[in-house]
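retry 2 of 3: previous attempt timed out while embedding manganese (II) ion. Reduced batch size to 1 and resubmitted. Inputs unchanged:
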Amino acid sequence: MTVEQMYAYAKEKYAKWSIDVEQAMTTLKEIPISIHCWQGDDIGGFEVNKSELSGGIDVTGNYPGKARSPKELRADLEQALSLIPGHHRVNLHALYAETNGEAVDRDELKPAHFKNWVDWAKKMNIGLDFNPTLFSHPKAQNGLTLAHPKEEIRQFWIEHCKKSRKIAAYFGEELGTPSLMNIWIPDGFKDIPSDRLTPRKRLKESLDAIYKETLNQSHVLDAVESKVFGIGSESYVVGSHEFYMGYALKNNKIYLMDTGHYHPTETVSNKISSMLLFSDVVALHVSRPVRWDSDHVVILDDELKEIAIEIIRNDAIDKVKIGLDFFDASINRIAAWTMGTRNMVKALLYALLMPHDLLKRYQDEGNYTARLALLEEFKTYPFGAVWDYYCQQMNVPVGEAWLEQVELYEKNELLIRN
Ligand SMILES: C[C@H](O)[C@H](O)[C@@H](O)C(=O)CO
Ligand SMILES: [Mn+2]
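retry 2 succeeded.
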């Protein structure tokens, strides 16, 4: 059967439940995913005085072909974007600045250092998001930055974050779409702290200083990302869930939830609805923790589908900023981007093809039998046929055909890098 025939069959099956498949695809086209640039070079960046990766995160694997320059990284991103249906965004970190061979420290970064990225984004017609980089730097070596006991160190990082807001505002202004400026810091302790309060007070004061200047929200959106533990901060993380949720809600900032940053039986899908009752916008780093915050490539698992369902059934497409955060150097990096992002889009399509009103009604009526029965039956509805048709319509490879293109790019481009 052809893609069109399979699609026609699927359309009929969904129509039985009054699900408009065409409308689902139209909606899907408008949902941007913020694709993290750092999968392409193992969070290395291109600073002149480059430091080793630090901050309690780790990239394992040594697959050949990692991007060695901004030019290569952009070419790799273009290759991945050509295999992913829809219109997406790219998320940068401060360590991807381009300084023309000059050593520019993080507290001195300027919008001009990201001009090439902006020119490229204009060419690609995509938005850019941004992150200050508070790791992989001599001033972050003991795992403390914005909560550091030394005023001088805190000031350095405060300045870096202020500069980062300006860079994000430049992205927003130039590209006509607000840039999400997300602060994540590694601060914490390996062992049991003797004072939990003071570092948190310091972090709160640092954030107040960073956000003192009001910037245009149509250019920059401020977000803060919590964490439960990292390598070397197993016992205590200053920017914990309660800390940042409290800070964001009180100060009108966006709370960013990374799916790898909670206790193993906690799920972000179960947090979105609560956050949406108290906040206009929430942000996500969709990742895949395996036993720890391992940042595996996102797969189409139950939690991914549940996150997508929460976004769709709560009418929250414009309220949830979806970003990705994984880094795997044991497989082809372009394949990692392609799979992870296609899976996020797939999960959203899956969620768009469900009878949410009916399922909500069953719940209110106490008909839990029908609720469970339908939730289960829809798992084997022919959503794959709609996905294939969507890919075809969006001029990207159908099914596993994208893999051949990645293999070709690997042969012609990646394997000649060393
Ligand atoms: C590189 C990212 O900023 C980083 O992964 C952060 O978002 C995080 O999730 C740290 O665990
Ligand atoms: Mn993250």
